[in-house]
UniProtKB/TrEMBL annotation:
Alphabetically ordered keywords of this record: Hydrolase, Nuclease, Signal
Signal peptide: 1-18
Any one Gene Ontology molecular-function term assigned to this protein's record: hydrolase activity
Family according to the record: Belongs to the EndA/NucM nuclease family.
Organism: Epilithonimonas arachidiradicis
Name of the protein in its database record: Putative secreted protein (Por secretion system target)
Length: 353
């Protein structure tokens, strides 16, 4: 089982995949932001072959070699990473037709709902975002966006949930996979936003903001970044990426190079309030003007720099020697929002109102 990593700031991920073809990412060195995303879009579009809508790739890409290691279908909606699965499917033997509950059959889950792109190809047949999943759970997920559930109306046997969103800024119905596969979903979504960059503005989805570059609306972008950080790339994803590449000729760059996500979309501070320092406070909070008073139970003069980050992990202000002449910091025209002050090992959250 992968271990979820809860850290303040996630740096570069260093997983090496020996299966990456030599030269596949030529031309990406030194690029960031829109330029990097556009180059990756060109790379993953070139060579992509639409092989139609079938079951073939699952037999090589989605067998359980990682948990029970029984070669059954690896279904993210039924897999129990900490114990026995509630049920298993045999590859090729339990494909859906009819079902009336969990554990009857598996089908093909479009992680990005096919209704959002009107069943168009090649996205309909793109196995970088097609996964084998329990048919009944797939039906429950329906076209709802992925999110984080506050009150569940239904829970699958492995703990995936459908219910009302607890994301600040979105109050609709969402589907939440278990923690083990949240990073997998996030990296699939970043792939899709890159592969179909030139068409994405014509797709209709609550998770999108209508832009070509950013693609994802808040609070979904921050959620996907957090999922990506907290659930790092697994061997399952690496192997699946290689199998899909062998099948349809393109790769998910964010499995091969997870650091590309931060270079394009930034990072989030993957912490909740319990992770902030209890001995560092800011007043007033919310901030009404351009100055804040910082206090702590340590000698703050020892800290040579203070950093202010926004909620997507971008450094919006750096203060040199912040506490040499007192504990007052002047903010530089920060827009309204939530920010993190970090100095040394101390960190705390404040709001600009």
């Amino acid at each position: 089982m992968k271990k979820s990593i809860f850290i303040l700031l996630v740096g570069m991920f260093g997983i090496t995949n020996a299966q990456i073809p030599t030269g596949y990412y030529n031309g990406t060195d030194g690029l960031t932001g829109q330029a990097l995303k556009t180059k990756l879009s060109q790379i993953v579009t070139n060579g992509h072959q639409d092989k139609g809508y079938n079951w073939n790739v699952f037999s090589s890409a989605d067998r359980d070699k990682y948990y029970e290691k029984d070669n059954s279908v690896l279904d993210i909606y039924s897999e129990n990473p900490t114990g026995p699965d509630p049920y298993n499917f045999s590859m090729g033997a339990n494909q859906c037709g009819n079902y009336n509950g969990e554990g009857v059959c598996y089908n093909r889950e479009h992680t990005i709902p096919k209704s959002t792109f009107d069943d168009r190809t090649p996205m309909h047949n793109d196995y970088q975002h097609l996964l084998p999943t329990d048919g009944y759970v797939n039906g429950k997920r329906s076209n709802w966006p992925y999110g984080e559930v506050g009150t569940a109306t239904w829970t699958s046997k492995n703990g995936s949930k459908l219910g009302s969103s607890k994301l600040n800024g979105y109050g609709g119905t969402v589907f939440e996979p278990i923690n083990e596969f949240k990073g997998d979903i996030a990296r699939i979504y970043f792939y899709f936003a890159t592969r179909y960059q030139s068409q994405i503005t014509t797709f209709n989805y609550d998770m999108y903001d209508g832009s070509t570059f950013k693609v994802f609306a808040e609070p979904f972008l921050s959620m996907l970044l957090r999922w990506h950080q907290q659930d790092p790339v697994s061997q399952k994803e690496i192997d699946r990426n290689g199998a899909v590449y062998a099948y349809q000729g393109n790769r998910n760059p964010y499995i091969d190079h997870p650091e590309y996500i931060a270079q394009i979309w930034g990072t989030v501070l993957a912490v909740d309030d319990a992770s902030f320092s209890k001995n560092l406070t800011i007043a007033p909070n919310p901030v009404k003007g351009n100055t804040i008073q910082v206090t702590g139970d340590k000698d703050l003069k020892q800290f040579k720099k203070a950093f202010i980050y926004n909620t997507v992990g971008q450094n919006v202000q750096t203060i040199e020697n912040p506490f040499q002449n007192g504990n007052t910091i002047t903010l530089k025209n920060l827009p309204k929002g939530v920010y993190i002050l970090k100095t040394g090992e101390l960190n705390t959250k404040f709001i600009v109102d």
